[in-house]
């Protein structure tokens, strides 16, 4: 029998203007109950799904959005096909009002086709929306996105940025795992993914423990919460999260930001390059390169390059925007040989 997830720690009494560093630099997840309770969008969605839909349309000016359409038998789960060489949904480009029409037209169907608009920049899709529905994140240069759909299930995955996600309509269940649970979540391909991030292959509604036995251990470390309109969740960088939209009409607003400069590339690039250059080396050579990475990356300090004059340290010196561009050009030159 699988263990039940622990409740995610909750914080009450915060407002969109009182989020501070203690919250936004947390290394563990937090539920921020009622954070956006006063947003007009939240008040509209609490009145009815139709009122929430109408509120969104007030700001829509005709932009095309990316959407995913799943068949009724997918039960809302966006995933691979059986062979893992394709997907069980169809990506489309459509007008947002047409997507909203589709969600409303199918709301009473059981099971219904799944409709999902994912990670769409709010300022592009709904200009003016954030003037009345927003969070104050201080000096953080956050990307604000909107996610709209009916009953959906998004497989467990991680994101590099820190994340505050606000439920603006409907209800959602979040199940989170700390980063070290990677081996127990049975992650699929890293270079062929449904939406950019590698995902767990475990069906959380029907986990096959014969096929994925270590998932039972992952569940012993799981944390979960169900959020209503106005509630928010802080998901730290690299925490695995599985998200279920539980209502026939759901709206999520999220804010992503990184604790590193924009000119730094994603570490996934290093992972892919390491697979290309190191993974299949003889074991003794891989161990040497593990020590080299520890020396220059994971255990690096002031003494690592102290014996080299500062002006001659090159890539071993502090990384700057110009230095990042130079490194990227060097890598491209070497990879394109």
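^ Assign residues to that structure.
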């Amino acid at each position: 029998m699988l263990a039940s997830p622990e409740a995610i720690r909750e914080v009450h009494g915060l407002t969109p203007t009182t989020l501070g560093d203690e919250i936004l630099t947390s290394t563990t997840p937090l539920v921020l109950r009622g954070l956006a309770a006063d947003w007009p969008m939240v008040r509209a969605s609490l009145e009815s799904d139709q009122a929430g839909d109408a509120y969104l349309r007030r700001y829509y000016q005709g932009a095309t959005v990316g959407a995913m359409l799943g068949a009724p038998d997918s039960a809302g789960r966006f995933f691979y096909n059986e062979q893992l060489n394709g997907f069980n949904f169809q990506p489309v480009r459509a007008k947002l009002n047409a997507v909203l029409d589709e969600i409303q037209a199918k709301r009473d169907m059981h099971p219904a086709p799944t409709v999902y608009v994912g990670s769409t920049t709010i300022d592009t899709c709904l200009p003016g929306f954030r003037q009345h529905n927003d969070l104050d994140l201080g000096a953080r240069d956050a990307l604000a996105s909107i996610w709209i759909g009916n009953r959906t299930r998004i497989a467990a995955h991680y994101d590099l940025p820190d994340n505050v996600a606000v439920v603006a309509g409907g209800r959602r269940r979040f199940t989170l795992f700390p980063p070290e649970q990677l081996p127990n979540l049975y992650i699929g391909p890293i270079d062929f993914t449904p939406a950019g991030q590698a995902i767990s292959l475990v069906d959380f509604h029907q986990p096959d423990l014969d096929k994925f036995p270590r998932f039972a251990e992952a569940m012993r470390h799981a944390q979960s919460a169900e959020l209503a309109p106005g509630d928010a969740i802080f998901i730290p960088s690299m925490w695995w999260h599985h998200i279920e939209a539980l209502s026939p009409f759901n709206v999520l607003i999220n804010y992503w930001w990184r604790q590193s400069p924009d000119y730094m590339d994603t570490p996934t690039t290093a992972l892919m390059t390491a697979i290309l250059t190191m993974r299949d080396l003889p074991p003794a050579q891989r161990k040497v390169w593990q020590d080299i990475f520890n020396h220059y990356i994971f255990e690096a300090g002031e003494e690592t390059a102290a014996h080299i004059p500062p002006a001659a340290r090159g890539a071993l010196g502090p990384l700057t925007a110009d230095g990042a561009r130079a490194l990227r050009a060097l890598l491209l030159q070497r990879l394109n040989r």
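The two ends are 53 Å apart (CA to CA).
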